[in-house]
């Protein structure tokens, strides 16, 4: 990294921090409720910041590096399917969360089942995924990108620690308000820069895709591909519903708007960005890199940017990518703290805990754990495929609890908690011992298994007959 890159990199990073500080400093009407202030920005996020935060929380190095690392067009299906997930969030789940005045998505489960233990169970699973999978992978992919882009010998763990410290500062001292604002400012820059990378990559191959194998240029995957075409008809939509509609990290932004309509505007704007911009930036550079360098996996994106961008511009792009890592990291960190504080600590340990102090302590604990796990993911063949596969351990069992709670009444929470744990075990068996089908198919099988087992236990063990819900009232005697 030369002097020009360093100056541009740190200058833009400082600018984002300054703009975020100025925006958050003058914000009035802060809630006297510490939980709502730290975790829902006192309900003060306008649609613009909802859209920006949702977009950049998801769009980070695990997307840009991981998806381009597959070096094939097929991965665009994850983003195209995400549009459907966002529409379902806006039209189905947002009105429900606002009706129940939820701070966390898992609070909805407590209200529907009249049971705090199911809320704590699902929150614990979310936390396991965030702390053991998402946070360390974000640190790893961000550090890998910086290392490959600038061809530095600095160890990945050192870069990861730098990301973790700065990201934690946003989440701890600024809460969701600072996270969402920095997300949005950084997101505008990242999207512009990412589109520029697409154009530079296309120009580098003279807009000529000849010589690239056809299987890397098709949207119809065969059974040996990362996304076989038939998986689009089974588990794909349920993966999207889980991620966009029940995942605390994403929905927390929409729940922080002043009204349902404002939240919906933000989510629809995020869906438009996802449809019009994101698919191109997460696959085209990787395909171009295949023609230029061959199959180099997750190093493709960083090498392409480092080779094609002039020094001053690569410094600017690195600043935006660093911001993407930071904002995704601090978003997951903030949502994890919300789950712990609201769903576990205040429910079982101290109802009137000092939220600021507790948020600080638990956030630091999560950060240290994530840093320690970074080496575990070093050397993965495809980080994005690994992430999606590991998601199944938690995603479908968790989604089953939401779907059963919304679709049925008179369901005992204990039946659902047992079915969720059994579903997690079933998917672990599929993943690590016996994999008869593609993991996306296995996700649907796991979801159906959890719902059927939950309703069966509800009837046979707890003596309750589930009834289709005719409204959104809480369960009866659950």
What this model shows, in words?
The structure is a single chain. The protein has 2 domains: 42-379, Sodium/glucose cotransporter, CATH 1.20.1730.10; 392-478, no CATH class. It has 19 helices and 2 strands. It has helices at 3-25, 34-40, 47-58, 61-70, 76-99, 105-113, 116-149, 156-204, 236-246, 248-254, 260-276, 278-293, 300-308, 311-348, 355-377, 383-391, 395-407, 413-432, 439-460, and strands at 408-409, 467-468. Strands 1-2 form a two-stranded antiparallel ribbon. The longest helix is centred in the middle third of the chain and has 49 residues, at 156-204. The radius of gyration is 22 Å and the shape is globular.
Could you provide a short overview of the structure?
By secondary structure, the protein is mainly α.
Question: What is the CATH C level class of the largest domain, in words?
Answer: Mainly Alpha
Provide mean pLDDT, rounded. 88
Tell me how many strands there are.
2
**Which spans of ≥5 residues are poorly predicted at pLDDT below 50?**
28-32
Which short descriptors sum up this protein?
478 residues, mainly alpha, Sodium/glucose cotransporter, 2 domains, two-stranded antiparallel ribbon, 2 strands, 74% helix, globular
Can you lay out the helices and strands and say which pair or pack?
Blueprint: H1 3-25, H2 34-40, H3 47-58, H4 61-70, H5 76-99, H6 105-113, H7 116-149, H8 156-204, H9 236-246, H10 248-254, H11 260-276, H12 278-293, H13 300-308, H14 311-348, H15 355-377, H16 383-391, H17 395-407, E1 408-409, H18 413-432, H19 439-460, E2 467-468
Antiparallel strand pairs: 1-2
Helix pairs in contact: 1-8, 1-14, 2-8, 3-8, 3-10, 3-11, 3-14, 4-7, 4-12, 5-9, 5-11, 5-12, 6-7, 6-17, 7-8, 7-13, 7-14, 7-15, 7-16, 7-18, 8-12, 8-14, 8-15, 9-17, 12-13, 14-15, 17-18, 17-19, 18-19
């Amino acid at each position: 990294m030369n002097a020009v890159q360093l100056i541009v990199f740190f200058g833009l990073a400082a600018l984002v921090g300054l703009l975020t500080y100025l925006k958050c400093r003058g914000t009035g009407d802060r809630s006297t409720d510490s939980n709502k202030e730290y975790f829902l920005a006192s309900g003060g996020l306008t649609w613009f910041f909802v859209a920006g935060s949702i977009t950049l929380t998801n769009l980070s190095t695990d997307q840009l590096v991981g998806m381009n690392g597959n070096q094939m067009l097929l991965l665009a299906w994850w983003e195209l399917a995400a549009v459907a997930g966002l529409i379902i969030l806006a039209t189905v789940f947002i009105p429900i969360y606002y009706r129940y005045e939820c701070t966390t998505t898992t609070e909805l489960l407590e209200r529907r089942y009249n049971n705090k233990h199911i809320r704590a169970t699902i929150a614990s699973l979310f936390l396991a995924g965030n702390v053991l999978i998402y946070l360390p992978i974000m640190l790893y992919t961000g550090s890998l990108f910086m290392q490959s882009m600038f061809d530095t010998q600095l160890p990945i763990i050192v870069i990861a620690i730098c990301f973790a410290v700065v990201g934690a500062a946003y989440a701890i001292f600024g809460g969701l308000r600072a996270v969402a604002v920095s997300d949005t400012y950084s997101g505008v820059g990242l999207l512009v820069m990412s589109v520029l990378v697409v154009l530079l990559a296309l120009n580098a191959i003279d807009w000529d895709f000849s010589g690239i194998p056809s299987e890397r240029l098709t949207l119809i995957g065969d059974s040996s591909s990362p996304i076989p075409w038939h998986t689009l008809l089974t588990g794909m939509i349920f993966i999207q519903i889980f991620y966009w509609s029940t995942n605390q990290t994403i929905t927390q932004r929409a729940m922080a708007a002043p009204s349902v309509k404002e939240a919906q505007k933000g989510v629809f704007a995020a869906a438009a960005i996802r449809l019009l911009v994101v698919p191109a930036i997460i696959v085209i550079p990787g395909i171009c890199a295949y023609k230029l360098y061959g199959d180099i996996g997750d190093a493709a994106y960083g090498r392409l940017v480092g080779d094609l961008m002039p020094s001053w511009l690569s410094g600017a792009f690195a600043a935006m990518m660093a911001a993407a890592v930071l904002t995704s990291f601090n978003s997951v960190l903030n949502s994890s703290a919300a789950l712990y504080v609201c769903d576990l600590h205040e429910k079982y340990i101290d109802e009137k805990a000092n939220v600021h102090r507790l948020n600080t302590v638990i956030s630091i604990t999560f950060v240290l754990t994530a840093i320690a796990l970074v080496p575990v993911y070093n050397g993965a063949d495809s980080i994005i495929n690994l992430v999606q596969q590991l998601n199944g351990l938690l995603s479908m069992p968790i989604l089953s609890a939401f779907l059963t709670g919304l679709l049925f009444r008179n369901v005992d929470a204990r039946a659902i908690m047992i079915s969720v744990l059994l579903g997690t075990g079933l998917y672990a068996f599929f993943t690590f011992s016996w994999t008869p089908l593609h993991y996306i198919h296995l996700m649907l099988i796991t979801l159906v298994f959890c719902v059927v087992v939950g309703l069966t236990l509800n009837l046979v063990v707890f003596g309750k007959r589930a009834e289709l819900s005719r409204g959104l009232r809480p369960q009866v005697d659950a």
